[in-house]
Specification:
heterodimer; A: about 200 residues; alpha/beta; seven-stranded mixed β-sheet; 8 helices; 7 strands; globular; B: about 475 residues; five-stranded parallel β-sheet; four-stranded parallel β-sheet; 17 helices; 18 strands; about 35% helix
């Protein structure tokens, strides 16, 4: 797997806290045996509802078309373990998510896809979203090496658990290969676990 | 750092080592798979030319997409049929046991593994479903995982994970009549918050929790994830052992005695250290229901809907959004709110004890569900269905106007034909009240205990179950 060090591009601000996986990708789109095509359904119900109300969801706003960095709020991705949620974001074209906190399974699912999630404080998120809304063309950089999020003149110190950061920087985010290297140890441990050996 | 807890002991036993990126490699004792989150994982295995490492430690069933009314194959929903076929082919080719519809053992994955005695104390359990936390009721460490991690577990029977902190959540004292396990966990989530548990395993303890039966304990652990905790567990005790004894996959003969001794040894030590401790008093808990769009937006039946200003500033936007979506107003009472649909089932409350409670409420109430309310009673498994029918519960349900169905996830997340329509309000025993969760983008969910849902169905509105049950205690 390749190392992921810096993600840069235009960003899409998505205001609101506790946005759950059912909102990121409604359950009816989970009736599938591949992740292909999930991108177009990301936030499907939220987008339809806003459209019906005569408003525009950020994912439908032409000003943000082609943006690759999502700026979310607090507890983003709470709810289900469905990997369909990060898959739909990634297939839409999102390569990094900046938020003030993430639900744990969602965060781990994102690592496995090579989709970094980094945290800023709630007030920094607000500031970042405001500057992007004022200038949707602004280039944003998520720098995992320096641990920073930069946007125009602004530089924020971003936090990400060190284990996850290392997995991106060293190209180890897809864990399967590493896990398989230790199968000898795994088979040894199997002989030591009481419930696998008649107690 | 925690020390001497069940979590620490189980983690140490299963940790294979540290990975290059700093994460730990953890052996998984029981891997549960189903039709929604596994097909892509099997496809990834094929792409990489990998096979399933421990098919005998893996169990498959179908639950999310299975219709609860007409289960004739092929399913009417061609996408659902494709998912079924995919699971059938993948399990057959990999030598994984599949408990399919009609086997007598099919059901919601978190219901069947315990009832078969597959889930046992001291195990690590993983499943591509966030409610895997349920298995913690047995003193197992059980994680919900994504599809890439399902691939990892299939390929290696291990996961890459960060260790967790351990918070002891004590509930002490006795529950009043009409207050159930579901009320306890909604109360806990309401007070600790939907993200209060991020980074933690929750150890549920205290005299109230220890007095609960296994099925109630499963309800508590099931919703640990709704409080943000990666897993929740309860130390194994005599109640756990009594539940497991004699079940199909439980240890037998001499093995049983050795198993019980080991299970006792992995419980948290009396002098264990925790990263955090919170205490609740059972007598503070009243029948609790959600009014908003997260499981933490809950209140006791006696309380008025909260004022927006009573919440922290950063939460207020979401609270306003919840009021708008639910079409409710601060200061109002939830009592008397008319409902359109009642759903009884799911991995939270689809077990036999839940159904018995519903039948009990039907008999105490004596009435019939009004024509304005649609009801769906879904057993959590084919075994629960058979047990309920052997006890005559189905006849009670039907006599009181409830619709009795086949096992599945049903209307909890509506990936099958059971769905809310339009703005319907549903009193539900499930675990999530997210916007659109029950199949209609504008549908509304009120989470409650099975007894409360049963009474709401019979009355056609949110009602207080306590007078009914108090009368019974007196008589």
């Amino acid at each position: 797997m390749s190392a992921i060090t810096t993600i840069s591009g235009r960003a899409i601000p998505l205001r609101g806290n506790d946005i759950d996986t059912d909102r990121i990708i409604p359950a009816r789109f989970l009736r599938c045996v591949t992740f292909d095509g999930l991108g177009e359904h990301v936030f499907a119900d939220d987008r339809i509802q806003l459209k019906t109300a005569g408003k525009v969801h950020p994912f439908d706003n032409a000003a943000y078309a082609g943006a690759s960095i999502l700026i979310a709020g607090n507890n983003f991705g709470c709810g289900s373990s469905r990997e369909h949620a990060p898959q739909s974001l990634q297939k839409w074209g999102i390569n990094a998510v900046v938020g003030s906190s993430f639900a744990e399974i969602f965060f781990n699912n994102n690592i496995a896809l090579g989709l970094p999630c980094v945290c800023l404080s709630a007030s920094e998120i607000e500031k970042l979203q405001s500057v992007i809304e004022a200038d949707p063309k602004l280039r944003v950089e998520v720098d995992l090496v320096a641990g920073q999020v930069r946007a125009g003149e602004l530089t924020f110190a971003a936090s990400i658990p060190e284990g996850a950061r290392q997995m991106f920087l060293r190209g180890l985010w897809d864990a399967t290969g590493q896990l398989l290297e230790n199968m000898g140890k795994v088979r040894q441990r199997v002989t030591e676990i009481p419930y696998l050996n008649g107690f | 750092m925690s020390r001497g807890t069940l979590f620490d002991k189980v983690w140490q036993l299963h940790e294979i080592g540290q990975l290059e990126g700093g994460q730990r490699q953890l052996f998984i004792g029981l891997h549960l798979i189903h039709e929604v989150t596994s097909p892509q994982a099997f496809a990834m295995l094929r792409e990489r030319n990998l096979t399933v490492a421990f098919p005998e430690r893996t169990l498959a069933t179908v639950d999310h997409i299975v219709p609860t009314a007409d289960q004739t194959r092929p399913f009417v929903d061609t996408l659902a049929e494709e998912m079924m076929q995919s699971l059938e082919v993948n399990t057959r080719e990999s030598g994984i046991r599949l408990y399919n519809v009609g086997s007598g053992k099919q059901g919601v994955v978190h219901i069947i593994a315990p009832e078969l005695g597959l889930t046992q104390p001291g195990m690590t359990v993983a499943c591509g479903d966030s409610h895997t936390a349920t298995h913690g009721a047995f003193g197992a460490i059980a994680f919900g995982i994504g599809t890439s991690q399902v691939r990892d577990v299939l390929a290696s029977q291990t996961l890459s994970m960060e260790p967790l902190k351990v918070r002891r959540v004590e509930v002490n004292g006795k529950l009043a009549p009409g207050v159930f396990a579901k009320d306890v966990i909604l109360h806990i989530i309401r007070h600790l918050g939907v993200k209060g548990g991020v980074g933690f395993a929750y150890e549920f303890a205290g005299s109230c929790i220890e007095a609960l039966g296994m099925e109630e304990r499963m309800t508590i652990c099931n919703m640990a994830i709704e409080g943000g905790a990666r897993c929740g567990y309860i130390n194994p005790d005599q109640i756990t052992f009594d539940y497991l004894k004699g079940r199909e996959f439980a240890p037998k003969g001499d093995e049983w005695q050795r198993a019980v001794a080991w299970w006792r040894s992995i419980a948290s030590d009396v002098d264990a250290d925790y990263d955090d401790l919170v205490r609740f008093d059972a007598s503070d808990i009243s029948p609790t229901l959600t009014w908003g769009i997260t499981p933490g937006q809950a209140l006791g039946l006696d309380e008025a809907l909260p004022q927006v200003a009573s919440f922290e500033e950063e939460e207020q936007d979401l609270i306003r959004q919840a009021y708008e979506y639910m079409d409710l107003r601060p200061g109002e009472s939830m009592l008397g709110l008319a409902i359109d649909v009642a759903f009884i089932g799911s991995c939270t409350n689809g077990r036999i004890s839940d159904l018995r409670e519903v039948a009990h409420i039907c008999q105490l109430h004596g009435g019939r569900v009004p024509a304005s309310v649609k009801t769906v009673v879904v057993p959590g498994s084919e075994a629960v269905k058979a047990e309920a029918e052997a006890e005559g519960l189905d006849k009670i349900f039907v006599a009181h106007g409830f619709d009795w169905r086949n096992a599945g996830c049903s209307m909890c997340l509506a990936m099958n034909p059971d769905k809310l329509i339009g703005r319907q309000i549903c009193a539900s025993t499930s675990n999530r009240n997210f916007k659109g969760r029950q199949g209609s983008p504008s549908g509304r969910t009120l989470l409650m205990s099975p007894a409360m849902v049963a009474l709401a169905a019979l009355e056609g509105k949110v009602s207080d179950v306590r007078p009914l049950l108090k009368r019974e205690v007196k008589s």
